[in-house]
Amino acid sequence: MTKNTPISIEFFPPQTNEGAEKLRSARAKLAELQPEFFSVTFGAGGSTQDRTFETVFEIQQEGHEAAPHLSCIGSTRSNIRLILERYRKAGIHRIVALRGDLPSGVVDPGELRYANELVAFIREETGDQFHIEVAAYPEYHPQARSPEADLLAFQRKVEAGANSAITQYFYNLDAYLHFRDACAALGVHVPIVPGIMPIVSFSKLARFSDACGAEIPRWMRRKLESFGDDTDSIRAFGLEVVTRLCEQLIAAGAPGLHFYSMNQAGPTTEIVRRLGLG
Ligand code: FAD
């Protein structure tokens, strides 16, 4: 196993002052792992977006590289232009460019309908100012017409100017390897960094996985269900399974690991330490 595998860590913007304080303390611990960057998710709605900006700028002021996520659905070119300008002025160098999802009840998709259009717009507006990451789906995006169509949509994002990709989380190693090989066969050679979701609660994980189309393999689901409310056993099993997945990914040449920290330091730190990366 190489100790050179870079890691990155994702946060969501806290909605309360207490959440912001907790995140500061989690971030201080996670910074010890020397991640390449901390990314911050971006949601629909004004106040949520303000919290993304606040979190991004705070991370940057602490001296870490901050990578804001930016989604285009429901937005306008002029609004996105303003956000890009704000990030450019602040010296941000990396953006995770996404389509996003329309909040329920909202029907207007906005001016940019898919992430490849956002990537093209960022390049048109800002040239090479930003390293652009896009999303990839080894188990395919839930709305994709077909696996083939999803792969081609991914290719379009890269052709529009994305430098690298971060995947939706998955627990099936073969799905990642197959997706990576399919991209290579299409001539798409950007780094595809696996997204890693530590397991801390079965009910939360099951909810997320249903929503985003990430499969919890049957054997894992059965084991996790069998632990009931025994959170210690859930955590111990989760650490074992996810660390093993990361080991296999590194052995298979994954270019990095991106951790969905859920704003908690413990699980990510433990996995990274077990891997000997931190
Ligand atoms: P796209 O790449 O545009 O794809 C969306 C769907 O449209 C796919 O099914 C694709 O096959 C299809 N498609 C693409 N082009 C076309 C076309 N021309 N015609 C027909 N179909 C097409 N969401 C947030 O709201 N905020 C975040 O911060 C956030 N961060 C994320 C980070 C990562 C690493 C990942 C993996 C996901 C994240 N998401 C986030 C979720 C993401 O926004 C959703 O999965 C969303 O539904 C799709 O976004 P995308 O950028 O992958 O879209």
How would you describe the overall organization of this protein?
The protein has 278 residues and is α/β, with parallel strands linked by helices. It has a single domain (7-275), classed as TIM Barrel. It is 48% helix and 14% strand.
**Helix count?**
10
The CATH topology turns out to be TIM Barrel
Ligands present: flavin-adenine dinucleotide
**Helicity, as a percent range:** 40-55%
Question: Based on CA inertia axes, which overall geometry fits?
Answer: globular
CATH class bucket:
Alpha Beta
Q: What is the oligomer described by this structure?
A: single chain
Rounded to an integer in angstroms, the radius of gyration calculated over CA atoms is 18 Å
- Give the mean pLDDT: 96
Q: Could you say what the CATH architecture is?
A: Alpha-Beta Barrel
**Strand residues, percent:** 5-15%
User: Into how many domains do the coordinates divide?
Assistant: 1
The ordered H/E elements are EHEHEHEHEHEHEHHHEH
N- and C-termini, Cα separation: 13 Å
Strand segment tally: 8
For the largest beta-sheet, the strand count, sense and barrel status come to: 8 strands, parallel, barrel
Provide the spatial order of strands within the biggest beta sheet. 1-2-3-4-5-6-7-8
Low-confidence stretches: none
**Protein structure class:** alpha/beta
TL;DR of this structure?
The protein has helices spanning 17-31, 46-61, 77-89, 115-126, 147-159, 173-186, 202-212, 218-226, 231-251, 266-275, and strands spanning 7-11, 38-40, 66-71, 94-98, 131-136, 164-169, 192-196, 257-260. With 278 residues, it is of the alpha/beta class.
